[in-house]
Each structure stands twice: as C-alpha cells, then as structure tokens.
Automatic annotation (TrEMBL):
<feature type="compositionally biased region" description="Basic and acidic residues">
    <location>
        <begin position="560"/>
        <end position="581"/>
    </location>
</feature>
<feature type="domain" description="BRCT">
    <location>
        <begin position="4"/>
        <end position="101"/>
    </location>
</feature>
<dbReference type="InterPro" id="IPR036420">
    <property type="entry name" value="BRCT_dom_sf"/>
</dbReference>
<feature type="domain" description="BRCT">
    <location>
        <begin position="750"/>
        <end position="822"/>
    </location>
</feature>
<dbReference type="GO" id="GO:0006302">
    <property type="term" value="P:double-strand break repair"/>
</dbReference>
<dbReference type="InterPro" id="IPR053036">
    <property type="entry name" value="CellCycle_DNARepair_Reg"/>
</dbReference>
<dbReference type="GO" id="GO:0035361">
    <property type="term" value="C:Cul8-RING ubiquitin ligase complex"/>
</dbReference>
<feature type="region of interest" description="Disordered">
    <location>
        <begin position="543"/>
        <end position="595"/>
    </location>
</feature>
<feature type="region of interest" description="Disordered">
    <location>
        <begin position="470"/>
        <end position="530"/>
    </location>
</feature>
<dbReference type="Pfam" id="PF16770">
    <property type="entry name" value="RTT107_BRCT_5"/>
</dbReference>
<protein>
    <submittedName>
        <fullName>Predicted protein</fullName>
    </submittedName>
</protein>
<dbReference type="GO" id="GO:0005634">
    <property type="term" value="C:nucleus"/>
</dbReference>
<dbReference type="Pfam" id="PF12738">
    <property type="entry name" value="PTCB-BRCT"/>
</dbReference>
<feature type="domain" description="BRCT">
    <location>
        <begin position="102"/>
        <end position="192"/>
    </location>
</feature>
<feature type="domain" description="BRCT">
    <location>
        <begin position="337"/>
        <end position="409"/>
    </location>
</feature>
<dbReference type="GO" id="GO:1990683">
    <property type="term" value="P:DNA double-strand break attachment to nuclear envelope"/>
</dbReference>
<dbReference type="InterPro" id="IPR001357">
    <property type="entry name" value="BRCT_dom"/>
</dbReference>
C-alpha cells in the first residue's frame, strides 16, 4: 500500500496496554503518531478490557496483562513501543517477532552485524539470534545494536567508530554463552576493545549482582504484610478493582492480618468472598484441596500469599505463573527430592533466600554449609572452595537453572543437561536467577486434570483459549534446553574459547562458608462482566418478595413470611443458647436485624433531593442501606457514580478516575420512592449536551478510566501557583486521584526537575511539564523561572489554565490543546 495514500499503518488497528513503562501520556503521543500515519486506535471496552476482535496489533512493553494469553490464542501480535520507532524510521512496518515483550525472546530488540567471523560461525550466531527474537543487519547502521567481532581492526568496526556509532562491540563468546544458558547475560565482560574474559581469570573475584526479579518473590509464604494496613495513608490498590477474591483456610491467617487484607482489597474496589464459584482469584498455600482444584479447572487466577503481597506493593497485575514462588507449593515437594541435601555457593542477598525456599519447596533439605553427606551444590560460579571440593566428595555441581526448571516442570531434571553445568568465566549467574516460569498445561496434567463435565461455558471457553495459546506460543529454542545451532554446526571451539590459563596451586579447601544473614498457564480470562449488572435483578426480585405486604387471607407470604422466618431463626438460636447453659441476661429491646451485605457502592453528586435537608438525607441513606446499597464518600471505592447530568465537580472527576459505571441519580430516586431496585442498565447516564460541550464521550471516558485504574497522570509533573483561581487544593485532589505528581510552585520554591536522559525515541518530543496558573501579575513573575527549570530538565514547559486539568480528567485522556496555554507560547 503506497505511503502517500493511507500511510504505513493504514491497514492497522492498535490497542495500548498501560503499564509503568507505558504511561498514558506516552500512549497519547504514540497514538497521535500512529493516527497521522493512517492507523486506527481502538479504545478499551466499558470494563477496561481490550476488544481483541477489533485489533490487529497490541502495543505493550510487558506480557503482564490479563489478556495476553488470549492474544496468543488468536495470534494477535503483542509488540513493544520500539516497533513503532523502527517502523517510522524505515517508512514501512517492521517485523513483529523481534519486538515481542516475551522474556523468552532473549534477543528481542537486538540487531546484530558480524565482522571478522568465519562463515560457519557467522551463520550459526545469526540463525540463533533470529530464532530468539533478534535481527540481522548487513552493516553497523543507526538501528544496529551490536557488532560481533574478534578485534577492533575490521573495516566494519573502524567505519562504525568513525561515524560515532553508539552500539556495542562484543566477542562471539557472549552469544555462545547466552545460547548455552538459554538466558541473556550481561555483555560487559565481552565488550571490545578490552574484554574482561580475556584479561582476567575465572577464579578472580567478581561482585555478586543485585537481581530485581526476586523482589517480592523470594518466599512462597511471607511472614508479614509489607505495607501498613492504614488505607488512609496511601492510594488505593486498584489492581483489585472489580475482583472477587477468596482467601483459603490453608493460609492460616490471623484475624488481624485477614482484616488488614480485607481493608486493602475493599478499599481498592475488590471484594472478599467465601465460595470458590463466586471468586475470580483464589489465594492458597498448597496445590491440593477442593477449592484449588475447582478454581484451577475453571481457569481462575490461583496464587499464594506472596503473589497477593506482590500485587499490593506494585499495584500492577502479573500472572502468578510468572514467578515460581508466587504459585502454591506442592504438599510434600517434587518426587525425587525427598532424600536430597543441597547447599549453595556464590549467591547472596535475595537470591540466596530464594534458593533456600525453592529447595525446601521441592522437598529437599537445605544446608548452609557443605559436608560429605550433601548430594548437590548449586553455584553461580564454579570457582569457590565448595566447587573445588565437591567433585572429590561425590557432590554434583550445577547452576540454579537445574533447581528452577525441576520445580517449574514438577519433576527432577537430569543433571547432565549442558546448560545446568555451564558457567561463563566472568559472569555470576545470580544476574539471571528468577526468570523461569511455569507452564500451565504441565501443572494441569499433574494437579487438576479433567473437570470438563462440571465446567461452566465460560470455563470451557477459557480452557480452549489456554490450549490455543499453548499451541501458538513462540518456540523457545535454547531457552528450553535444546541444543544450540552452534553445537549442531560443530563450531570450531578454538576460535571462540578463551585460551586456558594455568590454575594456581589450591590451598587447603575451606568448606564451611560464612552464613549470610538476612531478615525477613496464565489465567486466560478477560473478566469483562459487570457483576452488579447481572445480580441486580435477583436483588430486586428478593426485595420485592420480602417487602410485599400479604393480601388478606394469605396465610404465609411476602413481608410476613420473611419476618416469621427471621423470628423463628432467632427463637431457635436463643433456645440453643439456653440449652448450652447461656445465662446471659436478655436485652430489654428487640435487637435490630443484621444488615444485608453491601451489593452496590454509589457516589452521589449534584443530588438535589438532599439539599439543605440533613434529616431527609439520613433517613434515605438508611433506607438504601437496608437494601444493600451504600452511599460512599468522595475518595472511597465505588461501583457507581450517580449524577443528574455530567458535571465538572471535584467529586465527579475524582470518582470518574476509578472507572465506575456512571448512572443517572434518578436511579436512586426511584429506589427511594418504590423500595425496589430496578435494572441499573436502564439508568446509564446520557448527556449529549455536556458531552458536546466538553468534547468527550462519557462511555469512552469510563472505559479509559477502568484501563488506567487511577494512573492516568502517572509520570506527569503538574505544578500549580498558590494564587490560582479557587486555590490549589481542589486541583491537587483531582490530579492525585489520577496518579499525578502535584507540587505548589512559589516565588522561592526549591522545586527542581530531575534531568532526563536524551535516549528517548528520536521522533517523540520532550515530555511536557505543566504549570497551572492564572493571569495575575504575581503569577506571571513565576513563568520565566518555570520555563528555565523545565528546559534544564530536558522537558517542555506548558503554562496552562486549570481548565486543562479538568479537561484531561473528564476525557480520561492525556490530551492537549493550545487553547489552554495562557502565556502565549
């Protein structure tokens, strides 16, 4: 298709997945670029999910979103933002495979050209790189990231350096070691002109690396909640919004901890339930029991307490299958490990804790020191005293990939697999620990097979999606322990292996290592159902029957029947109490019946019924609560936002950020007048005049809000003068409800903007930073210094009317129009 007709993306429909690495402001910028080049941007559904049937590509920098498995099932490519950069640069759509965020594609976004390598080695390296997500380049172009060479003298290397090329020049050893491990290790020891692997020996000291993969994932059963249970001191954990969660009894939670978790989940818009059939997510400790089997067979999210804490801390969804110790452990361990005694060496910090817990979860015994009765040594390098002594004592030496893959595949792996015995000379393998994930089909075969007869239609659909995704997933190649192309082609080791150094004479071996003290299948569903919409008719029917007054002559029915039933239950309880010897004095007054559970949480704004009538408001609130409806205050989680029409009040805009269903307040009026709950779908708010006035589509705003989960303005800096109209407090509330960083900017303000790097996409403008201001002389004096501060931080200063913030909050989109600028620039 010619570029000048529809653009390079003229046949594409894109959807974005917001995340920490893909904030809404960047989404808006990229979306504008795509539209300018002919693309269509597909908005999320009303529940915040992606309408996969309408998209051709999904832009995401992570696979950690609930619909990822479904995209694999229907073969919709998921690609990083870098794909857009490369496609724009080339003026044609780039291949999608090299830009997958799948961690199994270890060379994703690597573009390599080879210099002075033999032809067979060159073909071997390029073939394996391309199989694992990389690309080949004929020369060292701007898009090329690596030159594979044996020296700096090759003309291709010399020419690249003369052009001030910014990539990395690496020895072929790096690719070879990555292939053998099936993981991407750090290139630094292999960088020319002075590679560490050629100038230093394998026995020389090497720092133990830090590993972010294990943060919050080093234990399957953490002993404490990593956050304060005081929900008022932090933003809500919106990852639980609209989720129903079941905490299993095998967790053995204390009442205090369970209440703290309940507060956090409910404050984030979720619910705790007691029936496995009602839950979306099951939290349990072991891979057994009726609840675990039923939830797993229904393809629900099943994780352990560590995974739950991880979600609370990060407030970002991730699959419990992604990290090994986020999934329930097998009671009794993995077959074959029960008589094994395992120690570790050259791992530190979280990595050592993680391995200790993983060894115990497998069913083996972990020992802090190595003795002759140990069976295995897991080491990150093969150069410690333990490593030297182990073969003499008949102890098997392996790296951590052996224990990880044994646990992930639910059976002990043979120790003679090459990648379990490979130790790059200047690499501590602790840098790649924690990257192994579960395969859902393997778990199902062993722990919850069958169940087809009792599956609901939705569960059967999810099972088909999982199976299709498994069939369509990328072939992982060496990442799954296959022989590398280099091995199959019999590459000449003499050209790729570092010359052997003579080993120094070994002193008496020391086997007592210092003890390091330290404190301390994805679900395929797209859960798009509005739960309240489906149960509201049942609530209404129940209330209608309970409240109905019996007709004359009717011996048992309606309200009388309900009251009689409750009375009989109360009498029976009292009789049991007396029988058990309960001599407690009876209350003088009849106790009020317990209130029904809260089924609807509604925020009301602009509601004329209660204006200047507190007594009426209190009475009506009690009536609604008796029906299972709670009117909640601003800032609290809600299922519905009710208003007579679209209004730009603080309450409306802050509530909208949570993505509630927006309904007409006549819904509440009708309940109060009739005592019955009508179908909520009939009261979805429509306000064409206001939508035209504010240039919004209210339902799209709600859908975007559900997708952003209160993080629309994350990574967006918003400053405000203290003399702005109506004062800064209301704007602070709106900005922070949408995840912004909000600061007051004064004449003597010490505020500064931390400079950003210039390594951003070359076709994107600098990130903007906003100052909400009026036109007073005092405020105008702040503008020059604000501009200077922004420009020093490599950001674009925008001095705007506060209406910009209201516009963004109403549209739930980080959009900008020059009409909001008040400084004329």
């Amino acid at each position: 298709m010619p570029d000048d007709v529809e653009g390079i993306f003229g046949d594409c429909a894109f959807a974005f997945v917001p995340s920490d690495s893909l904030a809404p402001n960047l989404i808006h910028s990229l979306g504008t670029i795509l539209i300018e080049n002919g693309a269509e941007i597909v908005e999320p559904r009303r529940d915040g999910s992606i309408p996969i049937d309408r998209v051709t590509h999904i832009i995401s920098n992570t696979i950690d979103f609930p619909q990822y498995v479904e995209t694999q099932a229907v073969m919709i490519p998921v690609i990083t933002t870098q794909w857009i950069t490369v496609s724009i640069s080339r003026r044609k759509q780039a291949q999608v495979r090299p830009f997958s965020p799948d961690p199994a594609m270890i060379f994703s976004e690597v573009v390599v050209t080879c210099a002075d390598l033999p032809q067979m080695d060159k073909e071997s390296i390029l073939g394996a790189v391309m199989a694992l997500g990389g690309q080949e380049s004929k020369d060292a172009s701007k898009l090329c990231t690596h030159i594979c060479a044996l020296s700096m003298d090759h003309p291709k290397v010399v020419a690249a350096l003369e052009r001030n090329w910014k990539g990395k020049i690496v020895l072929p050893h790096w690719f070879d070691d990555c292939f053998k491990l099936g993981k991407r290790i750090d290139e630094r020891p292999y960088l020319l002109p002075d590679p560490d692997i050629l100038k230093r020996g394998a026995d020389e000291d090497l720092d133990i690396p830090m590993n972010k993969n294990l943060v919050g994932a080093s234990s399957a059963n953490p002993e404490f909640l990593p956050l304060s249970s005081d929900t008022s001191s932090r933003p809500p954990v919106t990852v639980f919004q609209d989720k129903s969660i079941l905490l299993c009894k095998d967790l053995k939670l204390t009442a205090r901890l369970e209440n703290a978790l309940k507060d956090i989940i409910e404050y984030g818009g979720g619910r705790l339930v007691e029936d496995v059939d009602e839950c979306d997510t099951l939290i349990c400790r072991y891979r057994d029991g009726d609840e675990y089997v039923r939830a797993s067979q229904a393809c629900k999210d099943v994780g352990n307490l560590s995974w739950l804490y991880f979600l609370i801390v990060r407030n970002e969804w991730t699959s419990p299958l992604r990290r090994l110790l986020h999934y329930p452990i097998p009671r009794g361990g993995i077959p074959g490990f029960q008589d094994k005694r395992i120690t570790v060496s050259n791992y530190g910090g979280e990595a050592r804790i993680y391995l200790e817990n993983l060894i115990k979860a497998c069913g083996a015994e972990f020992t802090r020191t190595m003795k002759t009765d140990n069976t295995h040594l897991i080491t990150a390098r093969n150069s410690s005293e333990k490593c030297k002594a182990a073969p003499e004592w008949g102890i098997t030496v392996v790296n951590h990939l052996w224990i990880e893959e044994s646990y992930a595949k639910c059976e002990m792996q043979p120790v003679n697999v090459k990648k379990y015995n490979h130790f790059p000379s200047r690499t501590n393998l602790g840098e790649i620990i924690g990257q192994t994930s579960f395969n859902e089909s393997r778990l199902r075969d062993l722990y919850y097979p069958g169940g087809e007869r009792t599956m609901s239609p939705s569960a059967k659909r999810k099972r088909k999606i999982l199976e299709a995704a498994e069939n369509n997933a990328y072939s992982h190649g060496p990442a799954e322990g296959e022989e590398t192309p280099a091995s199959r082609k019999n590459r000449r080791d003499a050209q790729l292996v570092t010359p052997a150094r003579s080993r120094p004479a070994r002193a008496d071996k020391e086997n007592e290592t210092p003890m390091i003290m330290s404190s301390g299948g994805r679900s395929a569903k797209s859960k798009a159902m509005d739960k309240l919409s489906s149960i509201a008719p049942d609530i209404a029917l129940y209330e209608k029957e309970k409240k109905r007054t019996s007709k004359p002559g009717t011996p048992f029915g309606g309200k009388k029947a309900a009251e009689l039933t409750e009375k009989e239950k109360g009498s029976a309880k009292k009789a049991v109490a007396r029988k058990d010897g309960d001599d407690e004095e009876r209350p003088a007054k009849k106790s009020r019946p317990s209130l029904p559970g809260i089924e609807m949480r509604i925020i009301l704004t602009g509601f004329p019924r209660w204006v200047d009538n507190q007594t009426k408001e209190d009475q009506d609130r009690r009536k609604l609560r008796d029906l299972g409806i709670q009117i909640v205050q601003e800032g609290h989680p809600c299922d519905y936002l009710a208003a007579p029409h679209v209004v730009r009040t603080v309450k409306f805009l802050c509530a909208l950020a949570r993505g509630p269903t927006v309904i007409s307040s006549s819904f509440v009026d009708q309940i109060l007048e009739t005592g019955k709950i009508p179908a909520v779908e009939k009261f979805i708010l429509k306000d064409d005049d206001a939508e035209a006035k504010y240039n919004i589509n209210l339902q799209q705003s709600v859908a975007r809000a559900k997708a952003h989960r209160g993080k629309l303005l994350r990574n967006v800096g918003i400053y405000c003068t203290d003399k702005v109209r109506n004062g800064p407090d209301s704007y602070r509330t709106i900005a922070e409800a949408n995840g912004a960083t909000f600061k007051i900017y004064r004449a003597r303000s010490g505020s500064t903007i931390k400079p950003t790097t210039a390594e951003q996409d070359n076709f994107l403008p600098p990130d903007p930073v906003y100052l909400l201001s009026g036109n007073s002389a005092e405020e105008k004096q702040l503008w020059p210094r604000f501009r200077e501060m922004a420009e020093k931080g490599h950001m674009e200063p925008r001095i705007v009317s506060p209406d910009w913030l209201l516009d963004v909050a109403m549209a739930q989109q980080v959009r900008f129009d020059k009409k909001f600028l008040i400084d004329g620039e």
